[in-house]
Amino acid sequence: MADQKVVWITGASSGIGEALVDEYLKDGYSVILSARSKDKLEAISDQASLTYPGKTAVVVADLEDTDSLPAACEMAIQQFGHIDLLINNAGISQRSLTLETDISVYDRLMKVNYLGNIALTKALLPHFMGRGKGHVAVISSLVGKFGSPYRSGYAASKHALHGFYDSARAELHDSNIHFTIVCPGFIRTNVSVNALTADGQPLNQMDDAQAKGMSPERCAHKIRQAIKKRKNEVYIGGKEVYALYLKRFFPGIFARILPGAKVR
């Protein structure tokens, strides 16, 4: 139906993405779930269908394979006939020192977090242009605004997103297409467990800071509120959010504090 609201969420198989699925179903949306794992997506979709029958669909998408994303986009549009909102949530983190990290790790971080992200957006933009409206939300990070130890490649990939989406927003200012950049801090997900180490293997342990972070459900609620208000950029987290303002207004002090900050 043309009047139904449809959101496409990537990285929907766990963490913030999975919480966003529930958040938008409760808000009356039909939800398209994407990630690499078909089994996980179908399990979440099947569970949601018990309460929201006919309101979910699954489209497998691998952001590292950018050539496959236009086809994934077409498949996503076909599920409910249109898409109102894309939430680019999928991504991968890093926990390794710059001097020790293999260049292949940086390559993968940029492919997944940046190139795959913008490739999916570019594939969907003609659909938005044709409808005369649309909204893209991208899950960046607080380290998309400043660098942090153990995250040089991750921070770089998130910084790149800000450059792209700020430019796209300016170019499409009069097109009724909106862009929201979300910058979470420490959220209690498996992002650190799955983070790449120096040789590309997963860390397989949760950071203390991550374990003590905000729940993904509360984060998802705040994300939906920010998107609904069409905010350009929003920062979500606990005390770590203050680091953003320290960096902006007192960069010298920030530079002295950062090397000793507890970021794991």
UniProtKB/TrEMBL annotation:
It comes from the Bacteria. InterPro entries: KR_dom, NAD(P)-bd_dom_sf, Sc_DH/Rdtase_CS, SDR_fam. Gene3D superfamilies: NAD(P)-binding Rossmann-like Domain (3.40.50.720). One of its GO terms (cellular component) is membrane. PROSITE patterns: ADH_SHORT. Keywords: Oxidoreductase. Belongs to the short-chain dehydrogenases/reductases (SDR) family. NCBIfam families: PRK06181.1. This is SDR family oxidoreductase.
